[in-house]
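We close this part of the discussion by returning to an individual protein. The encoding preserves chain order, so positions in sequence and tokens coincide. The sequence in question and its structure tokens are set out directly beneath this paragraph:

===
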Amino acid sequence: MYTSDEKRGELIACIRTWYPDWQDFHDPAFQKEEIEYKRTAAQNAQELLAEPVLRALLDNQEYSEIRRRLIKVAQLTNLLYMSTPATGDLRILNQAQWDTAQFAQQMYDLLYGPGTGEERLQRYLDFCASAALDTYWTFPTYYLYLCHPQDELFVKPKSARAFCEQVDTSFVWSAKPTAQAYGAIKEIARALITAFAAYGAADMMDAQAIIWTCRTQAKPPKEPSGQPDGKMTPEEAEDAENGAEQQSSAYPRQPAYSLAQFAEESGTPAKELERWVRAIKRKGQAVLYGPPGTGKTYHAERLARHLVGGGDGLWELVQFHPAYAYEDFV
């Protein structure tokens, strides 16, 4: 797997393609962009979905409040795909046939029922199958991960598959979640924590950060969409967000615009601009905020020119009406 110094060195080299100064898990940029916001989200999730809180809500039959809290926890990070409610990672909450009382009880069992995480996940999957609800990796493992980061792992299908197949040639991917497959992925994550213990790795959040950062070393073959209406599945949307190769277009190549030129024209340090670019390439989006007249549009235009420079990409400036709120846009 990656117990050898050579394999561990390959993963470290991969991390350093994103974080050139990375020496261990205490690296400031790595902590800020990969770890800190998840730990903050976990703390909030453990308050919103605490065992006594959920138990009290169930006893009082406040099922809509449980659903509201699940949605609020989903919004604490950008780990879930929520742009299209009908096909996104929260789609199970929007399926008409679900029984709110039974589903709320099942979520309690998933998070705090008896047995291992694998056993609780299997009971959740069995319930969904009996209720004709969708079963997919992201929804149950997200809540397991935030409520129990020491032991449970968030499984983002494309990145998890790419990483696991890269480090373990005997690993067999399961498109549909199962307890056995989840256990196999967790075993790889636990081995990753052990291999990087000397670098400060301590729990599944650290393991997930490496899996996500190093996912681009290998890409699994693209599977055909199961969506009859032609819409992207959440997994396909993730593949697109992660920079999957697209077919060449007929658009002309854009003139190159270097970060050095950007830094000179804007007065913003090149190191800071490099950090922005790394973040956008990883996350696929960015929001620049601040008072009027502080250079947000100026920087956004030049950032777009740099990102498409030398390729056939396009960028466009869109100005919204003052009455158009941020909430309307997102």
Notes: The radius of gyration is 21 Å.
